[in-house]
Design brief:
Helices cover 54% and strands 16% of the residues. It has helices at 3-29, 35-38, 57-72, 99-106, 149-161, 198-210, 227-281, 288-316, 322-354, 358-391, and strands at residues 32-33, 40-48, 80-84, 88-94, 112-115, 121-124, 128-135, 141-147, 168-171, 174-177, 189-192, 216-225, 285-286. Strands 3-4-2-12 form a four-stranded antiparallel beta sheet. It has a four-stranded antiparallel beta sheet with strand order 6-5-9-10, covered by helices on one side. Strands 7-8-11 form a three-stranded antiparallel beta sheet. Helix 7 (227-281) crosses helix 8. It starts with a helix and ends in a 35-residue tail after the last helix.
Length: 426
Amino acid sequence: MNGKAIVKFFAAIALIIGCFVYSIVPLASSLKQGLDLQGGTHIVLEAEDTANGVADNDAVERAKQILERRINEMGLSEPLVQREGARRIIIELPGVKDPDEAMERIGKTAVLEFKNEQGETVMTGDDLKDAKEELGPNKQPLVAIELSDEGARRFADLTAKNIGRRIAITLDGKELTNPVVQQAITGGRATISGSATLQEAKDLAILLRSGALPVKINVLEIRTVGPSLGQDSKDKSVVAFGVGIGLIMVFLLVLYRLSGFVANVALLVYVMLLLLVLGKGFDATLTLPGIAGIILSMGVAVDANILIFERFKEEVFTGKSMRVAIEAGFNRALSTITDANVSVMITAGILVLLGSGPVKGFAINLGLGVLVSMFTAILVSRFLLRLLIDCNFTNHPFWFGANVSPFKSAEEFAPAPKVLKGGKSK
């Protein structure tokens, strides 16, 4: 046995296992949870034709985009906004327990109007460039608005003609403020008072920034998913993940012995890398379909190792040394692994492009899992197998997965030398 190689091998194994134990909980916790895991609000909306707009495909799509902008600015973890049919829009808000509050913040049409003392609309919010919440000199919550160049010119002309008079600012017909104009306001900047709290001012700013809905939106259904249901789904997912990875590890150990042990350690690296990529790289949200994609991709990762080990066994039985056999096994299996994984990636790509919501989450997790599995199978497994062979624990094919008796010597499985004419062996 090679003492230095043994130290390197077990040091690498200890490092990987230690990193897994230390990091698995923080990495798993870094993933945000979807509606089906942490609960929240499910909303079904439907666009309606009115005298001011027809709910055609373009109008509904613009309404969806505006609702999505409003929801994203609420800071929720991976909300879902998607079309259903010609006029319906499905919204899922993870972590939102008050549906009425949610609709108050996202469902307004957000039509901003400036009206004179006669109640006539003299200017609208079409020229609004930006809106932000802030605290005034007396700590009162305000919304600071900024107009476009054309809007600034109109607003300056409007205020110049109405000095000493009131100009009411309304949102969806509800009066926000009704100040007396003291002087012409130039520069395209103004503030809107009337908000009771800073959060209320923030909500108003979000509505103004996202723009007005092009059509009227009716609420067809509001359903609250309780946290107990989400916790139950999460617990079952954790059990499924644990059982899945446990069965895979037992399978590899029984069939491939030492090679299976190496594959199991590589699988730990795979799980850590996948969680790191999803949580830190993509800031992903974990849902039940996403968990299914992760569990399925573990099977793909193991499949790559099985192909390599089978090729490795074939090379060993041709009489090659362990070192030569492992290199040949990896080289022969590489093209097969690549073809199989590319096929899965194509399927996942189609699902991402054509699917939506849960289907897309499943496909993204599956595709990322396949990419990470190629890295761990080709690089991590190869590195650990090289160290294992250098340790020179044994050269018996049985301990590397061959279906032969462990009680026969390794030399008995070597191929008989070929005999040439003249009695010379080849």
